[in-house]
Specification:
429 residues, 14 helices, Spore Coat Polysaccharide Biosynthesis Protein SpsA, Chain A, 57% helix, alpha/beta, eight-stranded mixed beta sheet
Length: 429
């Protein structure tokens, strides 16, 4: 609807009586009337701004709407891997692989006992689980709770000085003995079958990493948590389509499973260990997928500044990893991932926020020109229609605005060189 209005506006402008009158005057008095020349140049600039606005808006909308359609078409061309690959792991507990679960924590005294109980309550055989907690300089009772409550059931590693989440993960990876490694957080909860479902993802030998679907349990507490819920409904849909097509580059750090031996360390300057792991594994020729039968639960932040702090840091981390692995883009060696999926990630992380800023800067000149060309009444009518549509889609539009604002903040932080590898926890989860 917006594109239709703007296209009508641009068409009307190009054929407006004002423009024709000015051009006709130039024909009679070109060398004598400098004011008319300046006027025409000004009108041309205004028209160019309007056309540019329409072109950018059209480009952004087409790419975002066309991408899932393209993935759906491409995924149908793939052979059904489930019918071609027999499971390496049977349902017998004896044949299931050993799994190492790595939990880096910082000041998690409120949640750590619940988290460990949740893992131990899994339907995965206890004798096949190795749980490693890395306490990264906690100043509360996290360490003592793990020691006193779980004793030798849990391997506890400690570091007195915080050196970042990636450094803590690497400490844990050095101790892992399992065939499958699962990274998770202290505030996350799994369904009883989540670990088994994640392990089941690796029945295809080409799959190097797998993740789970995110369920937001407090979506009704605030408009921010509701926006987070809608964001993840959309993102998980995209991740599942990418997984069916080839690979997704968006693992979730709350449920990040991968084969032991593919990677030995996480880059310690990363702010997004999950993306770093995913892109390392893809660059080595393996696939990365999201298992739609595996789910995890974690509360969304509910306060404005807390929400934007956490989300902007994650966006910055994703942007850094996108630039780190930019050689994957338009690289036919990685199939559909290199030709379509990763270029879309570059568009989302880098191009889209820049274009959003350009659209915002052009909005006022376009409105003023619309008033000049169409009149106040027509412009108000168009604006009323746009506002009415926005009200009907206010939840989705709010989520889109939040997402674009967060990516713009992340881009600004990147330009300023703001990067602190020490992770912080939300205060409102």
């Amino acid at each position: 609807m917006i594109l239709g209005f703007l296209y009508y506006f641009c068409s009307s402008y190009c054929s407006s009586a004002k423009t024709r009158n000015v051009i006709s005057k130039i024909g009679f008095n070109f060398t004598k009337n400098l004011k008319i020349i300046i006027c025409v140049l000004f009108l041309s600039i205004q028209m160019s701004i309007s056309v540019l606005f329409v072109a950018i808006l059209f480009l952004v909308l087409v790419i975002h709407f066309a991408y899932p359609i393209l993935l759906n078409r491409l995924s149908k061309k793939r052979v059904n891997l489930k019918s071609e690959n027999k499971s390496r792991y049977s349902t017998s507990p004896i044949d299931l692989p050993n799994v190492s679960i790595v939990i880096p924590v910082y000041n998690e005294e409120r949640d750590i006992e619940r988290r460990l109980d949740n893992i131990l309550d899994s339907d995965y055989p206890k004798n096949k689980l190795e749980i490693i907690v890395i306490d990264s300089g906690s100043r509360d009772q996290t360490r003592s709770i793990v020691q006193s409550t779980f004793g030798n059931t849990i391997i506890l590693l400690t570091e007195e000085v915080r050196k970042g989440k990636a450094h803590a993960i690497n400490l844990g990876l050095q101790r892992c003995k399992g065939e499958i490694i699962i990274l998770t957080d202290g505030t996350t909860l799994y369904n009883r079958e989540t670990i088994r479902q994640l392990v089941d993802s690796f029945k295809d030998p080409k799959i190097g990493a797998a993740s789970a679907v995110y369920d937001v349990p407090n979506k009704e507490e605030s408009h921010l948590s509701d926006s987070e819920f809608k964001f993840w409904v959309h993102k998980d849909r995209i991740r599942l389509l990418e997984s069916s097509t080839h690979s997704t580059s968006w693992l979730s750090g709350e449920a990040c499973a991968f084969r032991s031996g593919i990677i030995n360390t996480v880059d310690e300057d990363t702010l997004a260990d999950d993306s770093n792991i995913a892109l390392q594994i893809i660059s080595k020729g393996f696939r990365v997928v999201v298992n739609q039968n595996a789910h995890f639960v974690e509360r969304s932040p509910t306060q404005f500044f807390d929400y934007f702090k956490i989300k902007s840091r994650r966006a910055l981390g994703g942007l850094i990893e996108t630039l780190r692995f930019k050689s994957l883009s338009f690289n036919s060696r990685y199939g559909y991932f290199g030709m379509f999926i990763f270029p879309y990630r570059i568009f989302v992380c880098l191009v889209s926020p820049i274009l959003a800023c350009v659209l915002t800067a052009l909005l006022v000149p376009v409105i003023l020109e619309a008033i000049s060309s169409l009149g106040i009444l027509a412009t108000v009518s168009i604006a009323s229609g746009v506002i009415g549509g926005a009200i009907l889609l206010r939840n989705s539009i709010t989520t889109l605005i939040y997402t674009q604002l967060i990516t713009v903040i992340a881009l600004f932080w990147l330009m300023r060189g703001k990067r602190d590898v020490r992770w912080t926890r939300s205060n409102t989860r």
